[in-house]
Amino acid sequence: MTLSNPVSPSEPPSESSSESPTTGAVPGWPRRPGGIAYGGDYNPEQWPEQVWREDVELMGQAGVNLVSVGIFSWALLEPAEGQYDFDWLDRVLELLHQGGVAVDLATPTAAPPAWLVRRYPEVRPQTREGVVLGPGARNGFCPSSPAYAEAATRITEQLAKRYAGHPAVVMWHVHNEYGGHVPACYCERSAAAFRRWLADRYGDLAGLNRAWGTAFWGQRYGEWEEIEPPRAAPTTVNPAQQLDFLRFSNDAYLACFIRERDLLRGHAPGIPITTNFMATACKNIDYWRWAAEVDVVANDHYLQAEQPENHIELSMTADLTRSLAGGRPWMLMEHSTSAVNWQPRNIAKRPGELRRNSLAHFGRGADSVMFFQWRAGASGAEKFHSAMVPHGGTDTRIWREVVELGADLRALAEVRGSEVAAQAAVLWDWQSWWALELEGRPSVDVGFRQLMLDWYEQLWRAGLTVDFAPPDSPRLDDYPLVVVPNLYLLTEPAAANLARYVERGGTLVVSFFSGIVDADERIHLGGYPGALRELLGVWVPEFRPLRAGETVRLRAADGPPGAPLTGDVWAEEVQLHGAEAIWSYEDGPAAGAPAVTRHPVGDGAAWYVSTRLRGPELATVLARAYADAGVPVSPPPAGVELVRRVGEQDSYLVAINHSDRDATVAGQGHELLTGADCAGQLFLPAGQVRVVREAAEPRRS
Fold first, then answer.
1. What is the CATH number of the domain that holds 679?
2. Peptide bond before residue 158 is cis, with ω within 30 degrees of 0
3. What is the CATH number of the domain that holds 518?
């Protein structure tokens, strides 16, 4: 059924928020709901219509006030090319609106319909090995395909025209998890687009040949048409070419988002637009670039279920997402009520874990808590993925916890809009991640994400809340301590930014194999650590990577002997050029050489850690850096997470006990979830969460 005119829903129910719709070309947070947004992906098309009314009634019971609709509905909205059926979506939006549930309306372009793939087979993506991927899943498209672009534009425009004025629609949700399943397409259309991208980047072939170092292995290019994507080859493809192709692929997906975003904005300039990130999980998307293009940063997060302390990785992801949002509130767009369906072993969440996970994101700046999905599917690839309404219905623990969480979020509504107070920064760079993990590196045991988590874990255990930042951030002076778990790729301007930070009084801690190459994957010559040599005050003529399972011992160079530290994976022949040795190698291939150094520069100091330290070993080194930076550290009880959100008048202590033992922490004020007051001591039962309103200085500008 094709309808030509937008629907005219009946008047909305009274709203708790008195905010007026946002206007202007770049809107901010959605005008509704007024408190913490709560809900998830809603897929009514998977259910008979008689279920829809029950869904809306249950949403009311659970306190749901926002749902994402239409994410994978392209084949239903456009069952044949140019033929549209919005009748069912009209009815769904009307029901939600009458039930007081706001809508994050999606463009369905992550799920190209079967007719599109059959009629235009060139939309299918191709792997590096030349395999053309078939339909039957999702995200099966080439981002450089003109046929895909035309079809995606057409369905987006139809939605924009029809629902731009719909009172239920408070946000647009473009696509779904860009780059999540197809990091890059290597087809001929992508090859042609890659060549155009390279011409824009370098201007001429001489510039490209210089940047790529094509004198090596006789790779010089004489015509643009000679350049192909870095497809599977007899051996390692030029790393600079691979790095540029990753940049191109990121930009190709970003162009898809911007195309839909601008079309939506043209029809509904007052409605904010987002797409869901996967901040620490998606390697191939440079979210620093993307964050500047969305109105509201939104993220999907799923626990690594088999990891015993996976709540630490959750916190890292939440901190990174908040940092992408520039410290402003952000949206948790998806997480799970219990088990997912796609990990090797899909572990169900324990009682209370749903609440702890949700409020941990909230504590680190999320002003929405949303799940995939509302009702557990009865068929399809995700039928064993948990949901707010499980297969067992409402007589289940999960449903009861969903209802309880809705009540919690209503009690926490006053916290909305407050910001998180951080004491340190961690540098994170996606393009350095790409370059670090290409072939031909000194050790396959050096992985970006694991290094980040190792270092973040120790900051978390010390009770420090951190922001993340790119290496060229102008805001580093806001932090007395900046930590660099790895920056293999570092440009000269970014290195100069770090030097300015230290000279002005900052304390910088840098881990091994950082500062090695520039943006063209070219070595910073003169010895390691390349662009950071002068700042760190060390010179390394040779890396000394370790064998699998091999370890090295480090002895303190000053003070009482103490127990040695143990490192693995990596060692270096460090020579001092202004720095002082704090720990030295006692054994191993660099025996006798400095291992951990400190270099006073201007009013600050730069530390260097030349081996991989983890756990308590790394904590020992970082404790010296905390003291050097003047950062007060008061570790909470084991398993306890403490973080503060700071508002205009009040601050809020979010305390989460992930352990199975009761704990007590310092706290004074009114506890919002229980209604109790605490005077100096906050009792935190095992597995529980408390949020205390404290008097505080107004938040910083």
1. 2.60.40.1180
2. no
3. 3.40.50.880
Residue from 685, 281, 626, 692 nearest 461 by CA:
626
Residue 96: burial class (beta carbons within 10 Å; 0-12, 13-18, 19+): buried
Residue 517's Cβ-side half-sphere holds a number of Cα atoms within 13 Å equal to 20
Give the angle subtended at the CA of 20 by the CAs of 18 and 26, to the nearest 5°: 140
- pLDDT tens per residue across span 38-95: 999 999 999 999 999 999 999 999 999 999 999 999 999 999 999 999 999 999 999 9
Block residue for tokens 């408390």: 690
Judge if 136 and 84 occupy the same domain.
yes
Cβ count within 10 A of residue 538: 27
Report the distance separating Cα 24 and Cα 430, nearest Å.
31
Share in percent of the chain as helix, strand, coil (round to 5): 30, 20, 45
What tokens were used for 592? 């006798």
Residue 229 lies in a domain: yes
Same domain, 226 and 292: no
The answer to whether residues 190 and 142 touch, using CB atoms and an 8 Å cutoff, is yes
- Per the residue annotation, which of 78, 334, 617, 641 is the catalytic one? 334
In this structure, which amino acid lies at residue 269?
P
Contacts of 73 (CB under 8 A, 6+ apart): 43, 45, 89, 106, 108, 111
Catalytic choice (78, 177, 521, 617):
177
- On whether both 319 and 430 belong to a single domain, the answer is no
Read off the pLDDT of residues 467-513 as tens digits, 9 standing for 90 and up.
999 999 999 999 999 999 999 999 999 999 999 999 999 999 999 99
**Statement to judge: residues 287 and 221 lie in one domain:** no
Residue 453 lies in a domain: yes
For residue 530, which phi and psi values (nearest 5 degrees)? 55, -115
Q: Are residues 229 and 279 in the same domain?
A: no
Three-class DSSP category at 476: helix
Q: Strands (DSSP E) along 251-324, which ranges?
A: 273-274, 276-277, 298-300
Q: What is the Cα–Cα distance from 694 to 644, expressed in whole angstroms?
A: 10
Note if 694 is an active site residue.
no
Range of the structural domain that residue 207 is part of: 188-242
pLDDT at 10 (0 to 100): 34
C-alpha to C-alpha distance for 422 and 128, rounded to whole angstroms: 42
- Report how many domains make up the chain: 4
Of 173, 208, 242, which residue is a domain's last?
242
What type of residue is 141? F
Q: Which of 290, 331, 276, 353 is nearest to 30 (CA)?
A: 331
Q: Are residues 225 and 142 in the same domain?
A: no
In the residue annotation, 419 being an active-site residue is answered as no
d(CA 128, CA 149): 22
Q: Are 488 and 597 in a shared domain?
A: yes
* pLDDT for res 138: 87
At 308-352, the pLDDT tens digits run: 999 999 999 999 999 999 999 999 999 999 999 999 999 999 999
User: Is 1 inside a domain boundary?
Assistant: no
Quote the tokens at residue 280. Answer: 């620490």
Region of 139 please: left (phi>0), alpha (psi -120 to 50) or beta.
left
> What is the rounded distance in angstroms from the CA atom of residue 80 to the CA atom of residue 527?
62
Q: Are residues 443 and 550 in the same domain?
A: yes
Q: Give the C-alpha separation, 392 to 352, whole Å.
A: 18
pLDDT for residue 13 is more than 50: no
Rounded to whole angstroms, how far apart are CA atoms 86 and 586?
Answer: 72
What is the identity of the amino acid at 391? Answer: H
360: domain CATH number is 3.20.20.80
Residue closest to 33 by CA, chosen among 52, 8, 12, 16: 16
- Considering 242, 269, 285, which residue would you say is the last residue of a domain? 242
Question: Is 93 domain-assigned?
Answer: yes
